[in-house]
Amino acid sequence: MTQAPPQTHLEDDEWRTAQSQFDAAAEILGLDQGTREILRDVQREFTCTFPVEKDDGGVEIFTGYRVQHNITRGPAKGGLRYHPDVSLDEVKALAMWMTWKCAVVNIPFGGAKGGVIVDPKRLSKRELEKLTRRFATEISVLVGPDRDIPAPDMNTDGQVMAWIMDTISMHRGFSVPAAVTGKPVEVGGSLGRVEATGRGVMICTLAALKHLGMKPHQARVAVQGFGNVGSISAKLVEEQGCRIVAVSDEFGGIHNPDGLSVKKLIEYRASQGSLKGFHGAVEIGRSGPLTVECDVLIPAAVGNQLTSRNAEDVKAKLIVEGANGPTTPEADKIFETRGIFVVPDILANAGGVTVSYFEWVQDLQAFFWSEHEVNEKLRAIMERAFAEVLAVSLDKKLPMRMAAYVQAVSRVAAATRDRGLYP
Ligand code: NAD
Q1: Are 206 and 268 part of one and the same domain?
Q2: What family name appears in the similarity comment (predicted)?
């Protein structure tokens, strides 16, 4: 094993990562200085502090953010995250990535992200609802179907989206389902939305395996994170014939080279609250899947997991980024040198925002599609986006991440040029 350089503090800085990735793409595209300066920063950042009454009658103050990176190609779109580590810089990076993600799959949205600094596990359901409704009220000055459309992200789900939709609707005095996506189907959600990000990861995994000349049944897959994205990606790639050999969540990881049944893992996690102690597997820790013997690695937990500290130890030939920002630029360089094929986050996990776009379209038209229609339209968009990025990668001899950036940034830059500078 080669000695990795010590990880710098900077390597953990997602905003620095996002800006340096953009700078590299801008350089390749030869973007003019003005456009670079517009696109390398966020357009709007909103910070709020707000009180929530706890069940015991006490009051706790929370801080939340909503950032719109760019709205040149359409309304701002992006998830809301509830996590103790949420910071303004992280939200800015995630908002910028949303702009590129929407542009890679060519849907008419700009990029946004939001979050609240909170560990939702500490709150009762009633407290979580109060926090959500108060935060929705704070950001309601920005939110609306033609302005900014939130969606789920880490620790937020359909229920949280339903509370936000209801709060915005109460303020307006009529139902505004298109103000938020990832809602339950009963209140205007789309069939297929819950599985959409994992389905997109599966579609990219199959396309990448094909490009690398591997059959799905030859592929051993390791997955970090077993929430919405991780568990559904695992389930869907297993259905395609891949063997899941390792998975983890925040409490720990498990490994079995002969394969793990995703159905049993999902049942076990539902009953035990975590994967720890799953029968018939060896415990490997929550970072274990990153460096385990496998062909495909799907990071689907938090950011900054693949760094200069562990990139040399990764065994996978293919990395499909379910999570946002799991790989630092330092790790990216190591993967490039080692010939590891990386399907970047802004392409690999774009299935979620794509079906959010379908949900928004269905809400605006009040005309809903079958799950089959949703899945087929998603497949068409993901396969086209993968093929377009691969073509740029082969044509310009760029790694897939830079090819995706070049594709996305050139679309946003063209829209910026066409619209011109106001006033
Ligand atoms: P989630 O809250 O449903 O699940 C997160 C999972 O990661 C949980 O299993 C949690 O236990 C695990 N986890 C957290 N920290 C970990 C750690 N240090 N090591 C191992 N596991 C850890 O969240 P999600 O919606 O599945 O999101 C996961 C990632 O995918 C995030 O980066 C998110 O931004 C990204 N993403 C989500 C969507 C979506 O539609 N939900 C879309 C695009 C990208």
Answers
A1: yes
A2: Belongs to the Glu/Leu/Phe/Val dehydrogenases family.
